[in-house]
Design brief:
CATH architecture of the domain at 324-726: 3-Layer(aba) Sandwich
Distance between the termini: 153 Å
Strand content: 15-25%
Largest sheet: 7 strands, mixed
Radius of gyration: 38 Å
Structural class: alpha+beta
CATH class of the domain at 324-726: Alpha Beta
Number of helices: 27
Length: about 725
């Protein structure tokens, strides 16, 4: 018995020794590991603990202003009181929601942009347990077991099921206060971390601004500042071509995201979306303020300004806004007058373009259209200036100057040559004749008289010559070369007809080209009854004739100026648009002079088709009228209705042109020509010269506001040669 007890006593200390030894080893390993951490890797871990990140963010600045050629502000920036929110990289959803709830007690937030999806997302956030119960465990497991789905896809499927199963009753359980909090919260989440997001910048009252400013210490991320909004000084004038700017919520247009990001923009940057604002985005977009945020674990430790912001550069347009507005009134008045006529049931638009034929400056571009206002459903006359270069029409006899010059340039006609004006009898087609001599006897007329009286037969015979064809009464056209279409279109292109004018605005349309090339359509082409042209193309075309043969690029941008803070004065010129001569027509000065004489006779000859309107003007003008058979698509009957287009092109003064114009009135009449083209053109030119006199008396010399550049001398040389021949 004693022997057994002794054995037990010696067994216990052995196990304890083993335990102590094991503990000793563990502590030794722990001490060794701590030594490695502190001595070997200590510096590295210390740097990791102390590591911070430098994050540079951009702050938006106001865009450049837009002025007219006389320094009148057209587009400006209206300062706005604004409330912003900036979240950090570690800001949680719960923290943002808490701030949104606090802010909702201090401001009123518009909720009309809150969507059904926003409400569902918000309901899930407010009712997490109920939302989780929308999807059963069995459904979750089934999705998890689908090997074709990634973890993100599984979560997305579960979330979509949750959204789909939120009832209307549950959505309606959100109170008006909840919806207002949601409207604020969605602004918080609309952008990027460390980038201020606009919460409210419209109709921020002084009281709201003061209340928020007083509670900034209780509203992490919230700030009060000044924002801006684009304002348009001349209401609806030129509104369709000035363009628009995106909001901070819209950000970059979806179709241009990649382009802008490659240029250094952020997705929520405000940019020009259309026309001038888009075309000159690189000018109008300012230099952003750059701030370096020093962050640690997503929290901002410090912020440093590394680049001051500067608003965008100012853009000076070629447009004369006073003249633009006066001509808009004229066009509206004449359009309403014509629309009231019983024989003008389809008249719904009118266009007028005025440009300097020597420089390409667009002085006025007017488009008016009778259409339904989408906001109130009422019909009204709206701005449609963009239609001057984005819509095209059959222009009729206004194109005959190009036809005659094409005859000269192809050696199929000589200046002063006579052709017989007579009805044409082509087998298989109705009799074709000039409007003034459809049934009368044959007459020998010159090229100048053909333009003055607007002879169709003269142009037809010239087109047949160009096509190498032979006309025999009551027989088909023989030896006709369809290549004549290409020849004539190529020569018309020298004037800018049927090709881009090069105007510095996006979306220019070149018109439609007929695709049938039989002889009858070539005859129609020669009198402006086949291809379609824009009002801008017509203005460029008549400018070529006015300035002696140079096709000049039209433009609306005149200068870029350095912005000047707190001043109404224009800053120094950074860039000035130079005259760009695109090409010169392949015609001699004598040939151009011959067409100029014809255009003079149109406005002053005893048989001139526009002489009644211009013969008594204080200035001497020249040009060409046109009437074209056309079709109006009736949206109610879904049928094409036969009607007429009325056009007029011209320039003044005749011996030293300073303005060229085109007037286009689509679907102007059914029976008697109301001469709306003449009324608009005469009144518009009268207004131009009236304003010129008034400004001269005021001592406002346009040359001090807009000076011609050196390479204009090339164009002036052409004009001088033409004037010498005329004298």
């Amino acid at each position: 018995m004693n022997r057994n007890r002794k054995k037990k006593r010696t067994h216990v200390p052995t196990r304890m020794n083993l335990l102590f030894f094991a503990v000793f080893l563990l502590f030794s390993l722990l001490v060794l590991r701590l030594g490695v951490v502190q001595i070997v890797s200590g510096e590295e871990y210390k740097k990791e603990v102390e590591r911070t990140e430098d994050v540079v963010v951009d702050t938006s600045v106001p865009r450049g202003k837009i002025y007219d050629r006389y320094g009148n502000v057209v587009v400006d920036n209206l300062p706005l009181n604004a409330i912003t929110y900036t979240r950090t990289q570690s800001t949680s959803q719960e923290e943002m929601l808490k701030v949104a709830e606090q802010l909702s007690t201090l401001i009123e937030k518009e909720t009309k942009e809150v969507t059904e999806r926003d409400k569902k997302d918000f309901w899930i956030m407010k009712h997490p347990e109920e939302a989780e119960g929308k999807v059963t465990e069995k459904e979750r497991q089934k999705l998890l077991n689908n090997e074709e789905l990634s973890e993100d896809q599984v979560n997305s499927e579960i979330y979509q099921l949750t959204l789909d199963r939120i009832s209307e009753k549950e959505i309606n359980s959100l109170t008006a206060e909840d919806i207002e909090v949601l409207a604020i919260y969605r602004e918080f989440t609309s952008g990027y971390a460390l980038v201020p997001q606009i919460v409210k910048n419209k109709d921020v009252t002084k009281e709201e601004f003061a209340r928020v400013s007083e509670h900034l210490q209780d509203l992490p991320g919230i700030n009060t500042t000044t924002d801006w909004e684009r304002t348009y000084a001349f209401d609806k004038t030129l509104r369709s071509i000035l363009g628009n700017v995106s909001s901070s919520r819209e950000g970059l247009p979806s179709n241009l995201v990649d382009y802008y990001i490659a240029q250094g923009y952020k997705r929520n940057d405000r940019v020009g979306k259309s026309y001038i604002e888009l075309q000159y985005e690189d000018v109008l977009q300012g230099q952003k303020e750059k701030i370096k945020n020093i962050t640690k674990d997503g929290s901002v430790l410090d912020s440093k300004l590394i680049q001051e912001g500067q608003r965008g550069k100012d853009l000076v347009l070629t447009i004369d806004m006073e003249l633009q507005q006066e001509i808009e009134k004229i066009v509206e008045e004449e359009l309403k007058k014509t629309m009231s006529r019983a024989d003008s049931p389809y008249t719904d638009r009118a266009f007028f373009v005025l440009m300097d034929p020597n420089t390409g400056d667009i002085l006025a571009m007017v488009g008016k259209k009778y259409a339904k206002n989408p906001e109130n459903g009422k019909y009204e006359i709206q701005d449609y200036a963009l239609g001057t270069f984005t819509s095209s029409y059959i222009v009729g006899s206004a194109a005959k100057g190009a036809t005659v010059l094409t005859g000269y340039m192809t050696d199929n006609l000589t200046p002063g040559e006579h052709l017989i004006d007579e009805p044409l009898y082509i087998k298989g087609t109705p009799k074709k004749g000039s409007w003034f001599n459809k049934y009368g006897p044959a007459k020998s007329i010159s090229d100048v008289f053909a333009l003055e009286k607007s002879s169709n037969a003269y142009m037809w015979k010239l087109a047949l010559r160009i096509a190498g064809a032979q006309y025999t009464r009551n027989e088909p056209i023989n030896n006709y070369d369809p290549g004549a279409f290409t020849i004539m279109r190529n020569h018309f292109a020298q004037f800018g007809l049927g090709v881009p004018t090069g105007i510095d605005l996006p979306g220019e349309f070149v018109g439609y080209k007929g695709n049938t090339k039989n002889p009858g359509y070539l005859l129609d082409f020669a009198i402006g009854q086949y291809d379609t042209y824009t009002p801008m193309q017509l203005a460029q075309y008549v400018s070529v004739i006015a300035n002696g043969g140079a096709r000049i690029q039209p433009h609306v941008m005149k200068e870029v100026r350095e912005p000047v803070s707190n001043s109404t004065e224009l800053g120094p010129i950074i860039y000035e648009k130079e005259v760009n001569v695109l090409n010169r027509i392949n015609a001699t000065q004598n040939e151009i002079k011959q067409v100029q004489k014809g255009f003079y006779q149109v406005f002053h000859g005893s048989d001139g088709t526009a002489a009644d309107a211009f013969h008594d003007a204080e200035y001497v003008a020249a040009g060409k009228s046109g009437t074209a058979e056309a079709f109006y698509y009736d949206p109610e009957t879904k049928k094409n209705k036969e009607t007429y287009n009325t056009t007029l092109i011209g320039y003044a003064p005749y011996n030293n042109p300073e303005v060229a114009f085109s007037t286009v009135i689509p679907y102007s009449h059914q029976t008697i020509d109301p001469a709306i083209n003449e009324a608009i053109s005469r009144r518009a030119l009268d207004k131009y010269f009236e304003l010129k006199k008034k400004r001269a008396k005021q001592g406002l010399d346009q040359s001090k506001v807009t000076k011609k550049v050196e390479n204009l001398e090339k164009v002036e040389e052409i004009q001088e040669a033409a004037r010498e021949e005329n004298e």
